[in-house]
Specification:
The chain has 393 residues and is of the alpha/beta class. It is built from 12 helices and 9 strands.
Length: 393
C-alpha cells in the first residue's frame, strides 16, 4: 500500500482499535508481577500507542503532504533524488523515458471530485512520476487530459498547458481534492469558457520537508531548474502539447502562487502567462526555508525578490494575474506589487498585469475555489493555441 493510501490509514486504525480492545481484554490476565506478564503488558501498551501514533502521523501527512511516497519518507536525509546515484524505483527510466505511470499520490481514494465517465467524454487524470535530468529531481504529479485529447478529430493537434502548483507543504492531491481543479476545468471547458487544455498538477515541495520556494538553493535542490526545464521537457516528451511559451501558463495558490509569478518573471521563455492566488512576492526567511535559503548570497536573494526585479531589471514579456481578497494578510503586499507593476507596464507594454480582488475570504480552499473559475478563464484567454501539429505517421 502506498504511503498516501487511505486504505493504509484505515488498516492502521483497525489495528489500533484491535490493540486497544485486546489490551482491555488481556490486562486482567497479565496482572501478575512476574517477568512474562510484565513484558506482556509493556508489549500491549507499545503496540497500541504505536498504532495510534501511526494513524495520527499518516493523517497529518495526508493533510499536509510532507511525503508523497515511501521513497520520499525512507530516502536517507530526505535528500532529493540524484539520478547518477539512483538505484531504486525512482531511478532514471531506461531509454531516457522521463514520464511513467505510477500509483503514487493517493488518486485511488478520490472519486467524487473527479470527472466521471469515459475519457472521450469527460477527460482523464493520470498519475505519473517525472524524472528530471537537469535538476536531478524526481516527483509524482497528476496530468489532466481534456476529452478532446481522446477525440480522433484532434489526433494530430497539440494542446495548451497549465502547470498548477499547490501550496507548501501540500501534496499535488490537494489540487485534485481540495481545489477541485480537474472538476472545475472540465466544467469550464464543457461550457466553452476554457479551451481544451492539459493541466499538470504538482507540489512545490520537491525536496520534502523543506520549502524551497521553487528556487535553486545554493548547494541544495534545484527546484527552479526542475519546474522551468525538467517538467516542461518531460511533459512535451510524453503528451501532445504546445512547444512555445505562448501556449504554456503556470498558476498556483499560496506558495504555489508565489512560485508561479516567480517562474513567469524569471523564465518568460518557458511560461508566458502566470496567476498567483494569495501569493507572496519575496522569499521568506523562516524555519521552513532553514532561515536563509540563499546561504548569504545577496544577489540570488535579490533575483528571486519580485519587487526588486520590477525596479531593477528589464520588464519580462509576461502576462500576470494577481488574485487576493481585502481580508487576506497579503493584501497590502499585493496592492503594492500591483501598483509598481502597472507603472512598469505603462512604459513597457510587453508586461501585462491584471488583478482579481474579492471583498472577503481568507487563506483557505474555500476562497481559492471561489477564485478558481475566473482565474482559469483569464489564463485560458491569455494562452495562445499551439500553432504546431503532430507529424503524420
Amino acid at each position: 500500500m502506498e504511503l498516501t493510501s487511505r486504505t493504509l490509514v484505515y488498516t492502521l486504525a483497525a489495528v489500533a482499535a484491535a490493540a486497544l480492545l485486546g489490551t482491555l481484554w488481556l490486562w486482567p490476565r497479565l496482572a501478575r508481577q512476574r517477568p512474562l506478564p510484565v513484558l506482556g503488558r509493556l508489549g500491549l501498551l507499545a503496540v497500541t500507542q504505536l498504532a495510534v501514533l501511526g494513524v495520527l502521523l499518516l493523517s497529518v501527512n495526508d493533510a499536509y503532504g510532507f511525503y508523497s511516497s515511501w521513497n520520499d519518507l525512507l530516502r536517507p536525509g530526505g535528500a532529493p533524488l540524484a539520478l547518477a546515484a539512483a538505484k531504486g524505483p525512482d531511478a532514471a527510466p531506461a531509454g531516457g523515458q522521463l514520464v511513467r505511470p505510477t500509483t503514487e499520490g493517493g488518486l485511488e481514494g478520490v472519486k467524487d471530485v473527479l470527472p466521471a465517465g469515459p475519457p472521450e467524454e469527460v477527460g482523464r487524470v493520470d498519475s505519473v512520476r517525472i524524472t528530471g535530468p537537469a535538476s536531478g529531481l524526481s516527483d509524482q504529479v497528476f496530468v489532466y487530459l481534456p476529452p478532446e485529447y481522446f477525440n480522433p478529430r484532434y489526433a494530430r493537434e497539440r494542446f495548451p498547458v497549465l502547470l498548477a502548483l499547490a501550496g507548501y507543504p501540500g501534496p499535488s492531491l490537494h489540487l485534485v481534492e481540495g481545489l477541485r481543479l480537474p472538476q472545475t476545468a472540465a466544467e469550464l471547458q464543457r461550457t466553452g469558457q476554457l479551451a481544451p487544455t492539459v493541466i499538470v498538477m504538482a507540489r512545490p515541495t520537491v525536496a520534502p520537508p523543506r520549502n524551497t520556494e521553487c528556487v535553486d538553493v545554493p548547494g541544495g535542490p534545484k527546484a527552479e531548474t526542475w519546474f522551468a526545464q525538467d517538467v516542461p521537457a518531460a511533459v512535451r516528451s510524453a503528451y501532445r502539447v504546445g512547444r512555445s511559451a505562448d501556449s504554456w501558463g503556470v498558476f498556483g495558490y499560496s506558495t504555489g502562487g508565489s512560485c508561479a509569478l516567480r517562474l513567469a518573471m524569471r523564465h518568460p521563455g518557458t511560461f508566458r502567462t502566470a496567476a498567483g492566488m494569495h501569493a507572496d512576492y519575496t522569499v521568506p526567511n523562516d524555519r521552513w526555508t532553514d532561515g536563509d535559503l540563499f546561504r548569504g548570497d545577496k544577489d540570488a536573494a535579490q533575483q528571486s525578490d519580485l519587487n526588486w526585479r520590477l525596479k531593477h531589471l528589464p520588464a519580462p514579456r509576461a502576462d500576470l494575474l494577481l488574485v487576493s481578497t481585502r481580508a487576506e494578510d497579503d493584501y497590502a503586499a499585493t496592492e503594492q506589487f500591483l501598483a509598481e507593476a502597472r507603472q512598469v507596464s505603462a512604459a513597457h507594454p510587453e508586461l501585462e498585469v491584471d488583478s482579481i480582488v474579492l471583498p472577503d475570504g481568507g487563506h483557505s480552499f474555500e476562497s481559492w475555489r471561489r477564485e478558481l473559475p475566473a482565474t482559469l478563464e483569464w489564463l485560458g484567454d491569455h494562452l495562445a493555441p499551439p500553432p504546431d501539429r503532430e507529424p503524420r505517421p
